[in-house]
Amino acid sequence: MNVVFFGDIIINFRTTYFHPKTGKEVTNLWVIAWNYIKLRFWLDFLATIPFDTGAELLIANTNSGALQLFSLLKLVRVLRLNRLISIMRVKDDIKLSLRFLKLTFFLMIYLH
């Protein structure tokens, strides 16, 4: 799973975005990379590190709830779906369906 998150980090270094003030698409790779490092890179990086696996290797009997909280960082990345859904150029009914699927996903995670 961490390989997927690492791949997502690589893709985010090359994904264009719209400048919030001018509304123009930013395509300069250096500007994109710097913007990503300033805003979201650190959260994505922390979500990629397998803290629970590392702790199990160091401590034989790990049942600490604090270590399991680090796994929740991966869920924070799912919150980016709102931003992606809102900037998609599709019909509103498709956006509503995607938001419903996201809500269903969070409900399943919560009940699990």
In short:
With 112 residues, the protein is mainly α. The protein has eight helices and two strands; from the N terminus they run αββααααααα. Helices cover 70% and strands 4% of the residues.
Explain what the structure shows.
The chain is mostly helical. It has 2 domains: 71 residues, no CATH class; 34 residues. It has a two-stranded antiparallel sheet with strand order 1-2. A hairpin with a 6-residue loop joins strand 1 and strand 2. The model has no long low-confidence stretch (mean pLDDT 75).
Describe this protein with a few key phrases.
112 residues; mainly alpha; 8 helices; 70% helix
Cα shape: flat
What is the C-alpha radius of gyration, as a whole number of Å?
Answer: 17 Å
Content of β-strand: under 5%
Cα-to-Cα separation, first versus last residue: 19 Å
Helices, by number, come to 8
Total discrete domains:
2
Number of strands: 2
Note the main sheet. Answer: 2 strands, antiparallel
On the 0 to 100 scale, the average pLDDT is 75
**Class from secondary-structure proportions:** mainly alpha
Strand order of the largest sheet: 1-2
Order of helices and strands: HEEHHHHHHH
Q: List low-pLDDT spans.
A: none
Helix content: 55-70%
